[in-house]
């Protein structure tokens, strides 16, 4: 049976994510339980065909991107730096 490698591991050789590993179900059941391997179904393309299809379908489908706001330009707005009486509270404790 074929399994898709989800996490890198050492078996009879080194396996990397995306590889396809052939093994007996009884010998890799512990790896399937730990989400290291996943059984390859007939619907999933295996090896190079799957990688080519994934590369073609990896376009951004989230829609238009908005510009990120740069929050580093503003000073921090927390209780330690703002509010009335912060200097009085620290000086009265000394």
List the helices and strands and how they pair.
Blueprint: E1 2-5, E2 9-10, E3 14-15, E4 20-22, H1 25-33, E5 37-39, H2 47-56, H3 86-92
Antiparallel strand pairs: 1-4, 1-5, 2-3
Would you kindly provide a written description of the structure presented here, covering whatever features stand out?
This protein has 94 residues and is of the alpha+beta class. The protein is built from three helices and five strands; from the N terminus they run ββββαβαα. The chain has helices spanning 25-33, 47-56, 86-92, and strands at residues 2-5, 9-10, 14-15, 20-22, 37-39. It has a three-stranded antiparallel beta sheet. A two-stranded antiparallel sheet has the order 2-3. Strand 2 and strand 3 (14-15) form a beta hairpin. It is elongated and about 70 Å long. It starts with a strand and ends with a helix. The model has no long low-confidence stretch (mean pLDDT 74).
Which key features would you list for this structure?
94 residues, 3-stranded antiparallel β-sheet, 3 helices
């Amino acid at each position: 049976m074929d399994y898709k490698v989800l996490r890198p591991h050492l078996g009879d050789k080194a396996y990397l994510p995306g590889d396809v590993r052939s093994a007996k179900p009884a010998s890799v059941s512990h790896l399937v339980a730990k989400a290291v391997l996943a059984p390859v179904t007939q619907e999933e393309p295996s090896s190079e065909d799957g990688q080519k299809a994934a590369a073609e379908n990896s376009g951004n489908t989230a829609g238009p991107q908005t510009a990120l706001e740069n929050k580093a330009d503003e000073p921090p707005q927390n209780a330690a730096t703002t509010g009335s009486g912060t200097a009085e509270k620290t000086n009265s404790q000394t």
